[in-house]
């Protein structure tokens, strides 16, 4: 895969010297030290609403870990409106939905990206029952298998206030990063997202505010 296939939204890869890239590196550093000795091996990235930049955040965060010489797997668990295959220029014929139908067989759906140290599992064909597939032993087994092969697993999930999918995934990960878009999300919506994550016993380890004018 050539570099030209990478989406321009992958700022950390295409413009590593930019202020945005530095912000993503700062996010990675904050996540590494926020555990107080506890290592976060699986991190979900979600939002309160669609269109807030969660997929772009997940992708760029994954790239920053890869550039820090970590073995990284980024997983598209947004089985309703997947985006990671477009960001990385990957085919989406096989992906997470296929693996879950085969009881969590991970190796068959891992793809290499054009970024060294970074592999991906795209969403695959959109299934009729995304919530049930993610709330399954197969998904838990897949995450465990990923932890055995990679240093860190970044999971892109649906928004937590619209669907149960995002909450299901977040509760199965070591920590969750909540993405919010400045000027779009009202305070009550952000609080609703946090309340949903707290109710699901998901551990919020970071927050990202996108679309900030500087």
Give the secondary structure arrangement, pairings included.
Elements: H1 11-14, H2 19-34, E1 42-47, H3 54-67, E2 72-76, H4 84-88, H5 96-101, E3 111-112, E4 118-121, H6 130-134, H7 137-149, E5 152-156, H8 165-172, E6 175-181, H9 187-199, E7 204-210
Parallel strand pairs: 1-5, 1-6, 2-4, 2-5, 6-7
Antiparallel strand pairs: 3-4
Helix pairs in contact: 2-3
State the strand order across the main sheet.
Answer: 3-4-2-5-1-6-7
Write the CATH architecture name.
Answer: 3-Layer(aba) Sandwich
What fraction strand?
A: 15-25%
Strand-pairing-aware structural class = alpha/beta
Query: How many runs of DSSP E, i.e. beta strands?
Result: 7
Number of domains: 1
- Globally, the shape reads globular
Describe this structure in words.
The chain has 214 residues and is of the alpha/beta class. It has a single domain (3-210), classed as Rossmann fold, CATH 3.40.50.300. It is 39% helix and 17% strand. The protein is built from 9 helices and 7 strands; from the N terminus they run ααβαβααββααβαβαβ. It has helices at residues 11-14, 19-34, 54-67, 84-88, 96-101, 130-134, 137-149, 165-172, 187-199, and strands spanning 42-47, 72-76, 111-112, 118-121, 152-156, 175-181, 204-210. Strands 3-4-2-5-1-6-7 form a 7-stranded mixed beta sheet, with helices on both faces. α9 (187-199) links the parallel β6 and β7 (204-210). It is globular and about 40 Å long.
């Amino acid at each position: 895969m050539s570099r030209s296939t990478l989406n321009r939204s992958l700022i950390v890869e295409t413009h590593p010297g930019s202020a945005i890239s530095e912000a993503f590196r700062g996010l990675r550093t904050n996540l590494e030290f926020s555990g107080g000795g506890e290592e976060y091996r699986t991190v979900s990235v979600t939002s309160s609403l669609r269109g807030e930049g969660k997929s772009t955040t997940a992708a760029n965060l994954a790239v920053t870990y890869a550039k820090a010489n970590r073995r990284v797997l980024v997983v598209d668990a947004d089985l309703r409106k997947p985006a990671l295959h477009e960001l990385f220029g990957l085919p989406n014929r096989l992906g997470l939905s296929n693996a879950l139908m085969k009881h969590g067989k991970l190796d068959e759906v891992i793809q290499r990206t054009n970024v060294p140290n970074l592999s991906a599992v795209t969403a695959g064909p959109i299934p009729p029952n995304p919530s049930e597939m993610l709330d399954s032993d197969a998904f838990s087994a897949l995450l465990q298998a990923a932890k055995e092969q990679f240093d860190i697993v970044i999971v892109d999930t649906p928004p937590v206030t619209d669907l149960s999918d995002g909450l299901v995934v977040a509760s199965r990960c070591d920590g969750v990063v909540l993405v919010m878009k400045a000027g779009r999300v009202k305070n009550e919506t952000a609080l609703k997202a946090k309340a949903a994550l707290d109710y699901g016993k998901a551990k919020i380890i970071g927050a990202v505010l996108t679309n900030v004018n500087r």
